[in-house]
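Our platform keeps sequence and structure together, in a single record for each protein. Such a record has a labelled line for the sequence and another for the backbone structure tokens. Nothing more is needed to write down the fold, since each code stands for a local backbone conformation. For reference, a complete record is included directly beneath this paragraph:
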Amino acid sequence: MKKTTSLLLAATLAGSLFATNAMADAKAGQKYYLKKLKDSKKDGIANGGNFATKHDRDTWAEKKESGELLNAWKEICPSGEKKFDKMKEGDVTDLYDFCWQYASDGDVPSCG
């Protein structure tokens, strides 16, 4: 019984750490958007939520898997094309996590 309880506790702890890391990446993507892409209002995007809700979660995942993620972002935000071209791999992952987390069928972000 004690072994089962310990195993259950360890699994719960591991699951909570994974969820925290996933949210941290979305948070980093939100920060990237606010820092680098806030001037995308020229493209008719009022805020990061509008940017992320251009697609649903499945579409964002398909674009990432097919390698079309940067092109999708450039279509949504043409004024940020140079910034997308200069993105580091970690920034791409973080911004993708933000887009996936706050997609049209996802959560509602609290960013400007």
